[in-house]
Amino acid sequence: MEGIVKMNKDQLYSFQEAMIYSHKLSQISKALWKSVEKDWQNWIKDYGLNINEHHILWIAHHLEGASISDIAKFGVMHVSTAFNFSKKLEEQGYLTFSKKEDDKRNTYICLTPKGEELLLQTLNTYDPAKFGVFSASMP
Description:
This protein is α+β, with helices and mostly antiparallel strands. The chain contains 6 helices and 5 strands; from the N terminus they run E-E-H-H-E-H-H-E-E-H-H. A hairpin with a 2-residue loop joins strand 4 (95-100) and strand 5.
């Protein structure tokens, strides 16, 4: 396994150095996500939402008529996850599902007034001081 990895004409790294670097970066990324996830869950817990549901509401708000594929892409989730959580939000009255006349293949979602109100309530309670990642990244 030991060898030289050539990145360009001036940079040479051993296989071990490259592997250790990649592993460290993945560990840092995982730790960062865990911290963000904890902060996000604490932020929205009083609204009876999980992170996927909150993310779907947020994306639907910004895209104004997003397809399930859009939700999956921008929410970094599988299409079935995006659909299932969107369906749950629809059952609670926060979203509506529709098809377009010129595009029967895709399912589109739109926030209801109740969904818009819920999203805005969550956004109004955001407190940067309670987000460890935000606080830790300040000078």
